[in-house]
Each structure stands twice: as C-alpha cells, then as structure tokens.
Design brief:
about 270 residues, alpha/beta, 8-stranded parallel beta barrel, TIM Barrel, about 35% helix
C-alpha cells in the first residue's frame, strides 16, 4: 500500500511501516506534538510513517462518551499535520458520505472493524481512489477478509491493506491469532493493530479496558511473523486521553519500542 503514498519517506528501507497517532483528534496542539515526536523517531530508524487520528468516534459504549471536537475542525487539523510534516494521514470513516468528506483532507481511509462487511461503505471509500485500510472484524476469520479486499478492488481501487486487531474471546477480551497474518497476506498487505488488539471491551463501567503492558509482546510477535506494518495509538498521557486511553502507548515509550522492533525486523530479513 505504501508505494501509492507520495509523501511517505523511507519506502526503500525494508523496514515495517507504521500507522500511529492519537485515538482521536483532541486539539491541534496535541496532534502537532504527537506527529512531530513520532516523525523524529521514525526518521531516526527509517520507518515509513502515516499519522493517524480519528476525526469522529462513532462506536462508543455510552451516549456521553467523547465523539470528537467537530468533524471539519478535526479534519482540518489532520490536513495541517500532513502539510506541516509532509507525511500521509489517515482517519476512520463510519458512514458513506464520510468517504468523500474525509478524502478531501487525508490520504488513507480506514474502515472500522465492525463495519468491514458494509458493502456500500467499502465501495464509497474505494471510489475516492484514496488508499483504503480494512480492519478485520473481531467476528471474522482471516479467510473472510478476502471478500472485503475484493469489494474494494472490484470497485476499481487496488490501493488497499488489511489491519489485524484480534478476535473476540469471550465477552470482554480479544486474542490475536498470528496464523492469520500470512493467510491475509495472500490478499493484501497486513498491518497489526497492536493497541486495539489489547482492548478489553464491554466492561461493566461502559468504558473499554486494556492491557498496555503487553504492547511490546504483541508488537514483537507481529514483526517476527512478518507483518508488513504496525498500527499503534499513542498519547503523551493516556490517562487523560478522551478515547481508548486504557490500551494506548505512552508517547515517551515509543522510541524504545520502535528501536527494538527495528532490530527484530533486521533479524528476520
């Protein structure tokens, strides 16, 4: 997928690529701080980098959960990040009309896991001719993602990748089956969503939990089995994040993690 992104650096480094940023766009200042820090690290280790931030959070446990600072305001911040740092940007979309709206501001459209079977949404994203990432539903087998990829390609868009984010394990946990990565690579490049794979959804409080202490474990395993890219949500202070703070990586821990993962990548080449 990254070969279709003009602004992405280090395409020829043979390293994994990284999609990283906050769960949601909370403010311009916060987005710029995170992007600047990640870009410095990824340049140091020659990691192709895409900045991620949700312009809208539609899948929330409670009606009073944070959903965003305003659609166009958040999208404008994403565009500013791309322009200032010369990096591609991505955001998730939830409704058909979001595809054409978000495509005016970002380079990659992400389809959420719960919506990956929504044909009209996938077709709308594909028709923008932006790159499209497809999160594997927690309820789907790796083999079933072939059909999601085909929907995008049959709509005239070859620029797609799959994001693995774990499978439902009981009611309140997720588990990653690493056998699925090479299976899905038969259909498209595969990105391992490290932080969402460690979510603990459906908690009695109505706030999703997580196991951030296992981020390094999951990330190392993903690189070791040959994932093309990683997806990591990060924040300067996850305890204050307005969304998904329980499973995010603290920003000051990112460099140490990426240094280790780069060495794992070099070892398997």
């Amino acid at each position: 997928m990254i070969q279709f992104l003009d602004q992405i650096a280090h395409k020829d480094s043979k390293n994994f690529f990284l999609i990283a940023g906050p769960c949601a766009i909370e403010s311009e200042e916060m987005a710029m701080e995170i992007a600047e820090r990640i870009l410095a690290i990824t340049d140091k280790y020659q990691i192709p980098y895409i900045f991620k931030g949700s312009f809208k959070k539609a899948n929330r446990s409670r009606v009073d959960s944070f959903t965003g600072i305003g659609d166009e305001k958040a999208l404008e911040i994403l565009a500013k990040v791309g322009e200032r740092f010369k990096v591609p940007t991505t955001t998730d979309i939830h409704e058909n009309h979001h595809a054409t709206l978000a495509a005016q501001y970002v380079d990659v459209l992400q389809i959420p896991a719960f919506l990956v079977r929504q044909t009209d949404l996938l077709v709308a994203a594909a028709k923008t001719q932006k790159c499209v990432t497809l999160k594997k539903g927690q309820f789907l087998s790796p083999e079933a993602m072939k059909f999601a990829v085909e929907k995008v390609r049959d709509s005239g868009n070859e620029k797609t990748a799959i994001i693995e984010r774990g499978n439902s394990f009981g009611y309140t946990d997720l588990v990653v089956d690493f056998r699925g990565i090479p299976v899905m690579q038969q259909y498209a490049p595969v990105i391992l969503d490290v932080t969402h794979s460690l979510q603990q959804p459906n908690q009695s409080t109505g706030v999703t939990g997580g196991r951030p202490e296992l981020i390094e474990t999951i990330a190392k395993a993903g690189i070791a089995v040959g994932a093309d890219g990683l997806f990591i949500e990060t924040h300067p202070d996850p305890s204050c994040a307005k969304s998904d703070g329980a499973n995010m990586l603290r920003l000051d821990l990112l460099e140490g993690l990426l240094e280790k993962l780069t060495r794992v990548r070099q070892a398997i080449l």
